[in-house]
Amino acid sequence: MKKLILLLSSSLILLSCESKKTETEQNNTAMNSTTTAAKPDSVNKSLYILTAIVTTQAPKIDGDSADNAWKGQTWYPINHLWLGKDYTKEDFEGRFKLSWDANKLYLLVEVTDDSLIDIHQKWDSSWWNDDCVEIFIDEDKGGDLHQFNHKAFAYHVALNCKDVVDLGPDQKPHLYNNHIKAAKKTKGKTTVWEFAIDVYNDTYVDGKDNKPVKLLKDKKLGFCLNYCDNDKSAERENFISSIPVVGEDKDQGWKDASVFNELILK
Ligand SMILES: [Ca+2]
Ligand SMILES: [Ca+2]
Ligand SMILES: [Ca+2]
Ligand SMILES: [Ca+2]
Q1: Residue 111 forms beta bridges with which residues?
Q2: For the chain, which residues make up each domain, given as ranges?
Q3: Considering every ligand atom, which ligand is closest to the CA of 71?
């Protein structure tokens, strides 16, 4: 009997040690998963992948979307608020399509905006506070910081379809009008924009003779499409994007290419 009691109590001690060990292991595992798990505030980028199908016929850049290049392409919404208050469909609604060939990336944007304004007549004055389409491109999907370099571009295309503004390494605004050909047509409150875009890589140098890259099937780029909506204010009222950004300061695209969508050329 004594032997049996001894045996039972030592088994109980062993069992208790085992459960302590398991508890500690679980705690360790929990701690590890806390340190290695994806940041809870990060965006699941796989939900926002864009695709563009190659075209054999470049679209005519005229603000009319009848071109073959747009047929069979997917519409993507511009519906993630980066700046400003909630808005109505009458205030802003936007969507876009992409296409490409070896020489250019093509973009079709359809925007409903109740008021189109260009109150800053000078191209280098507060260009982001007029209605404009902002096209973000990161040729190698490097996801780098690009505020004052050309590791990625943040092209602001003005309502005049001519002025294309981004900041240069000298921290000043520059015109990149020869990178993008644009045209638009407005019917009622809806504007159809078309763009033919030259894609430049990280080696771009302001003032030098730069060559756009040749585009290839299965290439992946960083790409993001935003609209600056101003209707009647000194500063833009809304800034709306093709991808969400988490955290307080969502206006990251002009500085940080890691927030862009992924674009796959098919
Ligand atoms: Ca067209
Ligand atoms: Ca509006
Ligand atoms: Ca890059
Ligand atoms: Ca507007």
Answers
A1: 94, 191
A2: 1-37, 45-265
A3: 1
pTM of the model: 0.85
Ligand (nearest to CA of 84): 2
Q: How many helices (H) and strands (E) does the chain have?
A: 1, 14
Residue 153 Cα to ligand 3 middle (Å): 8
Considering every ligand atom shown, identify the ligand nearest to the alpha carbon of residue 181 and give its number. 1
How would you write the pLDDT of the chain (266 residues) with one tens digit per residue?
A: 444 444 444 444 444 434 433 333 333 433 343 344 445 468 999 999 999 999 999 999 999 999 999 999 999 999 999 999 999 999 999 999 999 999 999 999 999 999 999 999 899 999 999 999 999 999 999 999 999 999 999 999 999 999 999 999 999 999 999 999 999 999 999 999 999 999 999 999 999 999 999 999 999 999 999 999 999 999 999 999 999 999 999 999 999 999 999 999 99
CB 77 within 8 A of CB 261: no
CATH number for the domain whose boundaries are 45-265:
2.60.40.1190
What residues have a C-beta under 5 A from ligand 1, the ion? Answer: 59-60, 62, 64, 67
Number of CB atoms found within 10 A of residue 118's CB: 15
Q: Which two tokens stand for residue 240?
A: 């709306």
Residue 182 Cα distances to 66, 163, 216, angstroms = 16, 9, 23
Non-local (6+) Cβ contacts of 64 within 8 A are 185, 192, 194
Q: Which two tokens stand for residue 254?
A: 């002009």
